Amino acid sequence: MDSEGLLLLCDEPGFNHRFLDPEQGHPRAYWVQVEGLPDESALKKLKSGGLEIQGHRTRPCRVELLENEPSVPPRDPPVRFRKSIPTSWLRIELVEGKNRQVRRMTAAVGYPTLRLIRCAIGGLEEIQLNQGEWIELSTEERKNLTGKDRALRHL
Predict the structure, then answer these.
(1) Global pTM?
(2) Roughly how many angstroms between the first and final C-alpha of the chain, as a whole number?
């Protein structure tokens, strides 16, 4: 309920297993608004993997400090605002998806997540939909989502 962005819904037999199985390693990307301005040390810890989160060691991932805030509508309800603490935006791409993983990763390096928006799943990126809008994927788009070598090319 606290996260926003792309969501896949499917009734195709076998698709969920092919796409969600951790062995498949499909990339997921998030825009993450964090409290504070992460330093190089924190970004390096996120990128290198190995953060211990609930008995699980995270895999390496891509992390980029965004220069500009993504063009997204305001959140309702709005995120917590504190005048004395700045916020910044990261783009985090990972190939695993443990429950609340991104939130736990940023908190583990000292920068709690304020807002989390899934901006890409597999090969689906830059899809501009308003809240509540949906599209049906073409056969080719569905096929591209589960391409076996996709995760290896991304990370």
Answers:
(1) 0.83
(2) 28
